[in-house]
Fold these 2 entries.
Entry 1:
Amino acid sequence: MLKYWYKDFAQYPPGHRDYWRTRLIGHTLLLSSSFFLVLTLLNIFYFESYEYATLDASGFVLSLSILAFFNRTANVNLASWAVTLMVTGLILLFVASVGGYAHSLYWATLIPPFAFFLLGRQRGSLVSLIAFGVCAYIVYNQIQEARPVTFGMGALFNVIEVSIAHILLFRFYEGTRSSAYRQLGERNAKIQKLAETDKLTGLYNREKLDITLEEYVLQSRHRQTPFSLLILDVDYFKQINDAHGHLTGDRVLVQLADSLRSLCREGDFLARWGGEEFVILLPETQLSICVAVAEQLRQDIAAQKFDGQSLTISLGAAQLREDDTTKTLVNRADNALYQAKHTGRNRVVAEAASPHIRAVND
């Protein structure tokens, strides 16, 4: 039943600027048709006021007609004007018909929420000013006539009905605000993820690596804990591209990235540095442990097949020093990788300035 009122329009998906207007139109028409139906029945069977029953029945029919039109055409702007003018017109007709008595003016407080949300600030202001101008004129006539104010069941029902309408309206508004913030947060998270993710492998990219490396270096110095870094490169990767094509090379890199992700320790940070090179940040890890981790990675990768291809990797390791910058740390690891590539490949080499850490070969 509610799917008829809250129809999903393909042209207004969640996140579209008019999505919540479509929801409010459905919400308003459900609310107005329900209210007008109840008021029609009350005026017929309780108050025996057939004049007001006719007015309320007109509102009920108008609500259903606008809903049918909107569901058929999906014209948000026209439906917004139709809903606003219907609500404003019927309220002002009712206020005028009772001369502003029986707390009927309380109904006019419903006009601005509808007008502003559906029509925007400028048009909403215009409609509200006109409506309140009419109400002010009605009140002025009351003062001129100096009629005594009377209270009865009609006034009580007006206060109750409008109060319920306000609660439902502002409950809906709060729901839209919360949903909008949630959607914004999800969208920002998605954008953030795209901005820091390598498109091919799904690993973190160079930009995210640079930021995280700075953070890890500061964290290591603040906590006075060791911090090491690995750079690894696929041996003879150009030969794979030349022999089997770049699509095969891409599949190899994707599968290698998945394997590295599963092999890295919890707490280590893995990123694609560029091409067939990857970087692993190892917080709270001394160089000797870093070399052992690298050797295990080298052996595990050599034992696997990637898109039917055997691979070996070379790795360079370095540990943060007191006088290091991120650049000098990376340079030492890169120099170690260079040594690994030029002394036979398929091996781990620690930074040259740490002779007590020997290279681990096949």
Note: Residues 354-362 have pLDDT under 50 and may be disordered.
Entry 2:
Amino acid sequence: MKTKLVIILLMSLIVFGCSKNESDETDERQVMKHHELRPFYHFTPPKNWMNDPNGMVYYDGTYHLFYQYYPNGVNWGPMHWAHATSTDLFHWKDKGTKLYPDELGYIFSGSAVVDKNNTAGFKSNADAPLVAIFTHHQNFGGLQQQSLAFSTDKGTTWVKYSGNPVLKNPGITDFRDPKVIWYEPMNKWIMVLAAGNKIKIYSSQNLKDWNFESDFGENLGYHGGVWECPDLFELTDSKGVRKWALLVSIGGGESSEPNGGSSTQYFIGSFNGKTFTEENQEVLWADYGVDNYAGVSWSDIPEKDGRRIFMGWMSNWVYAGSTPSIGWRGAMTVAREVKLAETNGKYTLHFPLLNEINALKDAQQTSTGSTPMNGLDLNNNEIVGTGSYLVEMEIDATLTDDFEISMGNELEKMIISYSKVNAEFVVDRSNSGVTDFSPMFKRPIKCKFIPQSSKIFLQLLVDKSSLEIFINKGEKVMTTLFFPKYEYRFLEVNSKSGKDFLRTYTISALNKSIIRQ
């Protein structure tokens, strides 16, 4: 939750239009007259302002997503929690605003849990209480304290706890964004809380009374901005090795790593119920793109599912207040799984696409190539023209030292390139459409990548005005926005090698069965 900006305009998916020349067939075909660039399969608010995902909890077959919301305009304002639900993480139902500002302040970011053992004493019927833990932020003076709200009807209605705040401010300017988990070995709740340039860890038996345990992060990791929106969870890799991961968002400026602006780093290590101990010796990033911030994971996903699922806010604080918009602002990334992976003794996190994405593919709008080829040229393509599609391709890295993927129209295009010499992917959106609202928006976005085998498997997830690149099933991810004025109609893949480096490809439209509710 960003507090330094008074008026911030979030990323928007704007209505672009132009006057129609009835004799000009090109304009009729390409110009997106009166067409909102609202995504099909990414979550967006019905109207007005949205930023951080909050209170992500799973209960009784339903994924709950709360989010920072200002219901009275498209600019940042006094924060509320609005609510949406889904059974598959792609079809969302709007549930309205649930938590409103009060005498203690605005409702800033936080988390939610299922209190299965009724430790807080809120249970009133057969349903386990849902408990939200959030930051109260006073508008004047900026005092930040932690408070509770609870629901006894599966998240339909919420009541703020009469004893708020449950964790008072110890005299710290930035003291916010509580993430609470149940720590089974000690039968207690754990809270990780962003406090300036570090994370504070607290514990509780009942969610109401909190004890300080330890600090983490001073002189560790990256400190190019204030730390925000932490998350803490345990993962097990394919060999049964267990590690803890701590995610921390950083509200940095234009010169911040890895590519400028706000970003999310993570730490791999161990946790004993009191302290987190880092094992990685280098800074690790959850996303090398510039438009994935404040992401956290869902709590209480059943053991039989076994996944850790993550979602972030798709924007960047450097230019969020300058992007064009009309009527509403904000989008989330697609939900992604988080996996623990080991390579040459080094543990990292991978963020692969969820299998649920396959249910969105339109079999009637799918194109494939199953034999090696020296490139791909899909011009004036119907699937690309939908604006919402998934491209999957396998590159033979032994047959080319570089390749380029471009998508766009006669006037605009996005370019994704790879160089073996530089060992990096680069996204160039300098000519992708509207870019003049921020100098940083035109800068190249880079991601170091050295293939561990001869194959590079790429997934490009395009949805109207966003591009998410998954390299080798989430080994590296790059999330970026773009704002085209005209409908993108082509997709090309090229290499200077002249060899059949493109082994296979599939492109599928992903707007099938999406219904806004």
Note: Residues 3-35 have pLDDT under 50 and may be disordered.
